[in-house]
């Protein structure tokens, strides 16, 4: 299900990623999304069934924690995850009312509800990706050290 978010994106320049927020449940110490899809904190989470560009067969995110809390808490769970969305593995659909974010790969950085994870956002909302004039040699090199979950 898509929720339209009128907020602007939050670019994470140190990670070279866009922030996405997702509401999930926490069961037996593990964050689980709709249908039991798991989101282990600090792991590279790949949806093997996602179809790039599709708005149904993919992971769903919103641009801001406020939108997640106001529109999704209760319906989809009680925990708000703060995730890094990988360039080239995310897409958006929208109209004048706002946008929703989709992707096939994410890194759950932390949970804003229970505090699990090392990185909690305390960054200003930016009008969109603020790309550096030149990208780092390996801007997504930090992903190489993460455990991969693709089931």
Distinctive features:
single chain; 151 residues; seven-stranded mixed sheet; three-stranded antiparallel sheet; 1 helix; 10 strands; 33% strand
Give your account of this protein's structure:
- The chain is mainly beta and 151 residues long.
- It has one domain (11-123).
- The longest helix is centred in the middle third of the chain and has 7 residues, at 65-71.
- The strands form two sheets. Strands 1, 2, 3, 4, 6, 9 and 10 form a seven-stranded mixed beta sheet that branches.
- The model is unreliable at 120-133 (pLDDT under 50).
- The protein has one helix spanning 65-71, and strands at 11-12, 17-27, 30-32, 44-46, 59-61, 79-85, 90-95, 98-103, 105-111, 148-149.
- Helices cover 5% and strands 33% of the residues.
């Amino acid at each position: 299900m898509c929720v339209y978010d009128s907020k602007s994106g939050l670019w994470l320049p140190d990670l070279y990623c866009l922030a996405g927020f997702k509401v999930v449940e926490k069961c037996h110490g593990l964050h689980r999304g709709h249908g039991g899809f798991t989101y282990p904190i600090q792991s590279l989470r790949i949806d093997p069934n996602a179809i790039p560009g599709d708005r149904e067969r993919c992971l769903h995110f919103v641009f801001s924690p406020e939108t997640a809390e106001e529109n999704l808490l209760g319906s989809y769970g009680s925990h708000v995850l703060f995730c890094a969305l990988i360039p080239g593995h995310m897409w958006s659909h929208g109209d004048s009312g706002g946008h929703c974010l989709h992707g096939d790969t994410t890194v759950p950085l932390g949970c804003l509800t229970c505090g699990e994870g090392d990185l909690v956002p305390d960054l200003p909302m930016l009008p969109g990706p603020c790309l550096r004039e030149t990208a780092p040699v390996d801007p997504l090199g930090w992903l190489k050290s993460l455990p991969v979950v693709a089931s």
